[in-house]
């Protein structure tokens, strides 16, 4: 049973770290855009979001007003969110089945 507790404590921590990284990457891209400097590739932003940083990416889009009006970016962003959630659900399904089977 301890493994399940550790997993459920670890998952929010990982999302928190990845969200901070994602927010930082979006902020760096926004800063570069304002300064007319070289930008971070959109595929990099999407990759960080796909890896689990999508909550931080969403927060950065809203608070920094960055990439929120570009429709093509938003479509791919939401596909990465759904894909990420599907992968995580698939990975956690066996442990959830064992957990509920043990109850």
UniProtKB/TrEMBL annotation:
Task: From the UniProt annotation, give the residues forming the signal peptide.
Answer: none
Q: Does the keyword Transmembrane apply?
A: yes
What are the entry keywords? Membrane, Transmembrane, Transmembrane helix
Q: Which GO terms describe its molecular function?
A: nucleic acid binding
| Superkingdom in the source lineage | Bacteria
- Tell me which Pfam families the record gives: DUF1294
Q: Which residues cross the membrane?
A: 6-28, 76-93
InterPro entries the record matches: Cold_shock_CspA (IPR012156), DUF1294 (IPR010718)
* Name this protein carries in UniProt: DUF1294 domain-containing protein
């Amino acid at each position: 049973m301890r493994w399940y507790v550790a997993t459920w404590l670890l998952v929010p921590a990982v999302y928190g770290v990845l969200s901070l990284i994602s927010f930082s990457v979006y902020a760096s891209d926004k800063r570069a855009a304002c300064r007319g400097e070289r930008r971070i590739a959109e595929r990099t932003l999407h990759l960080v979001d796909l890896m689990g940083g999508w909550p931080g990416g969403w927060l950065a889009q809203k608070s920094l007003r960055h990439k929120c009006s570009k429709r093509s970016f938003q479509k791919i962003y939401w596909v990465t969110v759904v894909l990420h959630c599907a992968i995580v659900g698939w990975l956690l399904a066996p442990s959830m089945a064992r957990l509920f089977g043990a109850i």
